[in-house]
Every structure is written in C-alpha cells, then in structure tokens.
Amino acid sequence: MRPTSRQTTMVGPTQGGDGFGLGRGGGWYRRRLERDFGIRRVPFPGRRPSGRRRAATTNDRTPAGRLAATAALVACLCLAGCAGGGSGGASGGTAAPAEALGARPLVARDQSQFRRDLDGLRGRVVVVNFWASWCVPCRQEMPALEQASRGYTEAGKPVTVIGVDASDVRGEAAKFLSEVGVTYPTVYDRQGLRGGVAASWSVTALPQTWFVAKDGSRAGRIAGRLEVDDLRSRVDELLAGS
After folding, report:
1. 3-state secondary structure of 44
2. pLDDT above 90: residue 37
3. Which end of the chain is more exposed for a tag (fewer CB within 10 A), N or C?
C-alpha cells in the first residue's frame, strides 16, 4: 500500500526527514549520537564532519599511539647513537685506539692493524710465527721461539718475535701460552686462514714462520716446524746484512 503524505510527515524534527538525524532539525540529534556513542568519524555516508570536529586519528593516548611514539623515540636514539659513535662524526667522537702490541697476550688484530704494528718495528729484525693451539707442530716449536726471543733480548739485539694465533679458540690459546710461559708479544687473528692476518701473509697451513728485515720487507719464511738453530741462523743473517 502506498504511503500517504500524512504518514510521511509523521517523522518529526527530532530525527530529521530521513530518520537518521540528517534532515531538517536533525543536527542536534546527530551530535547527541556522537556524544553518547563516541563517534568520531563521519557517521553516515555522504556527509562530511564539521570543521570544528576532527576525524578519528591514532593519538598517543591509545595503545597503538603509545607504541608508535615509543618506536619513534627508539629510532631517534639509534640515529643519534650512530651519528655520535662513528669516527669523525658531527659530535666529535672518535674510534677507540687499538690496544698496544704486547700489552697483554692475544691482543686482537686485523690486517691493517698488524701492518701498523710492523711499521712501528722498523729498524728491528722481526720473526712472525703463525700458530694455533690445536696444531701439534706449533706446540712443539713454541719453546724454541721463546728460547730465541729471550736470548736476543738479553743480548740487547734488535730482534722481536711475534706470535700470531690464527683460526683458533682464544681461550685454548691463552691456556697454552700460560703453560709454556711465553713472554714475547702474541696477537689473536680470528679470521686467520680465511681472510685474516694469516691469509694476507699467504699462510695456508700451520705452523709457518716469516722473517722481516729491518727495512720492513719480508725476507723469507720457514714452512712447518722450525728448530732453534734454523731460527737463529736466519735472524743472524738479517742482523749482519743491515
């Protein structure tokens, strides 16, 4: 049955002409719905909110807002840390200097750091012994290296022996050095045969001992276990030839 005009006008001004508070006289009813039910978005299609009302957004009072604020704060702190911790950064921070060679056993070294160590030993004959605690021949030759090092030191000869612990477990290496009573400087080469100091010296098997002349040039090597007489012979030649 088709509604009459009387039935159509029965919708009063409290709701508006469309029954949802959107028609004539319905503005206050819609605002009451927003107040009572917490509506913040556009409640009905086709109508935009008043400029005095803000569409719903995530704010810092909601759990999601607090999470977003926390994430932003952490990101800022991380960026500040990266900017201030680098060498020569805006904050003026510099990288910590490498620990001095011989300051303690097994000072960590990479290729560039070890090159700087040798540069500081120009004018001396240097014996570089590559070893590891798991290498039996390395363990067998260690007393000979210690004996030669002490002998040259006591005689006042410009000779330095350096041990390079390559591709090893640092704790095991430290234990072995303590047992032998090694007094010459040793460094820890974590990368070792795979991209470390040992690799830069063409070391593919342990033990191996290199000899460096007073001018810093490499003057030969002994592959495999060495004897104290061979060690002294090579060193004496380099001392006499300079």
Report:
1. coil
2. no
3. N
Q: CA 47 to CA 103: how far, in whole Å?
A: 77
What is the widest separation between alpha-carbon atoms in the chain? 126
Q: Is the peptide bond before 207 cis (omega within 30 degrees of 0)?
A: yes
**In angstroms, what CA-CA distances link 126 with 84, 132, 163, 219, 241?**
39, 19, 11, 10, 14
* Structure-token match 């010296």, residue found: 201
Average pLDDT over residues 92-100: 59
- Rounded CA-CA distance 169/226 in Å is 23
pLDDT band at 89 (very low <50, low <70, confident <90, very high): very low
Q: What is the C-alpha R_g of the chain?
A: 40
Q: Please, are residues 164 and 133 in contact by the beta-carbon 8 Å criterion? A: no
